[in-house]
Amino acid sequence: MTHVLQNVVFPLDRDPDLLPLYADPETWSVIDEEPVRVSNRAQLGNVLDRRRARIVSGRRVSFGTYFNAFPASYWQHWTPVRNVTLTVRTSGPATILVYRSNGGGVKQRLETREVSGEETSEFALVLDQYSDGGWIWFDIAADEKAAIFEGAEWTTEQEPTRTGKASIGITTYNKPEYCVETLAALADAPDVLDLLDRVFVIDQGTQLVAERAEYPALAERLGDTLEVITQPNLGGSGGFARAMLETLDRPDSDFVQLLDDDVRIEPESVRRSVVFGRYASSPTIVGAHMFDLLDRPKLHAWAEVVDDQPFMWRALYQEELPHDFSVANLRQTPMLHMRLDADYNGWWMCLIPLEIIREIGLSLPAFIKWDDAEFSLRARDAGYPTVSMPGVALWHVSWVGKDDSIDWQAYFHARNRIVAALLHSPVPRGGTLLRHSQRVDLKHLMMMQYYPVELRHRALRDILSGPAHMWRTLPTAMPEARKLAATFPETKIHKDSGVPMRARRGRQVFKRRKQHEFDSPTGLMLRTFTLRTLLAHWIHSPKPANVAQPEVEFGKGDAHWWRIPTYDSALVSAADGSGKNVYTRDRAKFRRMLAETIRLHRQLRREWPRLSRSYRKALPDLTSERVWRETLKGQR
User: Fold this and answer.
1) 527/216: higher pLDDT
2) Which are the contacts of 539, defined by CB distance < 8 A and separation ≥ 6?
3) Is the pLDDT reported for residue 409 higher than 80?
4) Structural domain of residue 106, as residue ranges?
């Protein structure tokens, strides 16, 4: 029996920004070691439908692109599949060229075939030389007449390791417009629905998906596949835990596919992730890459890891992100040809085998932040890998226009990172984590950002109280954190109006420097600057005039922690550009919070071994199916 591993597809939307992710009909050259577009004749009019395209006479189109090249190294490394067939259907005179790359991105031609008329061309491929990386793809060059690309698939005759379906779990909070788009995309993809058992929408908001005008028609189209469940807002972890529980009750499901709400999906990616999960040699978490929903050719997240010493997440080769595929596509970017092994994958889209959930438990009751990373680390400790799969991706609202480190989410950033470290850090006392955490507090204090420091202190006190606080505060931590914001004037966003707020000295403008050249202090200068600034904030009160009106204004990109502290007050643009925040020095708050920062971090360092034992002992209850069911009882 033939099994389709991957279909060649074109974008759902007629969006020229998306075309470089699917097909590359342009000619490239290399000038000064940089890829340069020589001609730009990409036309959406040549995309005939989801599977077909016109190849203009004398033109060449490459399918060596993010969504249509075949990630051979991942299939070789993580599955037993070794024989793959590429089937290409064409009509008209053309030449099909099949290529491969190695882990360094070096291109090698595998086969060339001339075709005419209506033809189906098959290429037998062996996955035995891709241990470090590499893709396989094909180009089509039209001859004296235009040719039609009629479709292509990558298939195998090998039977999958497991055959169960997947249930999708979408957790949403007041994002119904995104959810109905996702449901519509699924309803329009019958080959994806064939692999799905249920689509659970866990609606935790007040703007309900079921109240959207589009919902009744979608519900009729999806039928019994769709199930909407409402419950109080328990964050992403509460919503995804509910999806896990519902899927565990489905005898036909072998996987749960977690999806965030503010996304746009590529349905083929959903299909690919389930197929890859079926073929994986052992139960494997299959994660998706993340593109920017508001700048769609830009890739923001691929293989992500957690470094042991600071116990902090990051993407591999983070300095290369975001990667803009409209500037340099797959074939021009050697780094994208490496096989990158991840520690975890974000839950914007992540396929989890139920075997893993049954063994290690459900989501940590973390509300948001670190629940995805902690789960994969827990799975890794039990012998289950996470694969961030190329060609499996969606578009998600990125963090470019956000600054959640200084809003109510600061509590969860601090608490959940340290809890995850108490559970999984292999380094005594978390390595440099607590030193880094204290530095974060000091930077906020020097920048006159007292609200996030208060939240971070609350997080540390909760951690010190023991693991039971996580269940106790699951429904209350977020509303309490948001309520606390009202007591900190800095959290108010001043909208532009007829009389805009101004700073006494005007806006500070800094000359933009080349990448990696900053004016931030380092080494001895950093220590001297920090000590001098802390002493100044401890000793001196702000001038009354600078309290009455901000002393200086900064753009968000210039409002660094080493610039703002030299002023009594500052007017700073909000991350999303919606207004401005006013930061004002408060000597009493600074003194109290600095002392509390030092005290809490010292106590946490002193009690780390005991707390680590306590949290690790409590982990089975924190993630247990039984406790989650009791927590959600009455909400069905």
Assistant:
1) 216
2) none
3) yes
4) 3-70+82-156
